[in-house]
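Quick one:
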Amino acid sequence: MRFFITGGTGFIGKHLVSHFLKQGHHISCLTRQSHLKSTHPHLEYIQGDLNHSIVCKVDQPYDVILHFGALTARHHPGGSYSANSQGTQNLINTFSDQLNQCRFIYASSISVSDDGDFRLAPINETKTPKALTIYGQTKLSGERILLKASQK
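Output:
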């Protein structure tokens, strides 16, 4: 299978990349880090980010798109909206011709339901979102963008 992964050098993403490579899959990994060079024949690093046109240059067909890339407001003030909300829309636009033929998996955050009681009760799709942080609001916006795209 062919995977396109955003956030593939982050905490969760790097473990997924390793797992999928061990299974013999092909990975294209979008990363902001320009110094990364792959030594694995099934791993390609695409230098860029979700806010810029590098994403638009991706033209290979993929079986699975894993969107784990995100920026926190604490470390990137002002950048979390453009990466998490607009970046998700950019990714949808980039892969619009493939979305009916592949799986699109989005990593959201507990921050979309951060009402302070998330440890006391299960959270599922019926719970009303209560994003109290900028990060949570941008991840919730990404969820809504994907929900709208899935209804087309």
